[in-house]
Specification:
This protein has 71 residues and is mainly beta.
Length: 71
């Protein structure tokens, strides 16, 4: 399972998977990514079924998307 991220230019990116209580459950990326399309692997092994949020931030700006994991 992966999430696709499109960047217009090089950026410092932090991407995490958090549970609905706000606890960070996985770090997907923390560092520089160049312009283009990137696939971030979602480490679902070891996570319970449920609703999570994929949180991506760069330079103080962030966004999040829901992720449902079903077993």
């Amino acid at each position: 399972l992966h999430a696709t991220l499109r960047l217009a230019g090089q950026r410092q990116i932090r991407a995490t998977l958090v549970d609905m209580l706000g606890r960070e459950r996985a770090l997907l990326h923390d560092g520089s990514l160049g312009a283009g399309i990137h696939a971030l692997q979602l480490p679902v092994r070891g996570l319970e079924s449920g609703l999570y949020r994929l949180v991506v931030s760069s330079a103080g700006i962030g966004t999040s998307k829901p992720v449902m994991i079903l077993r």
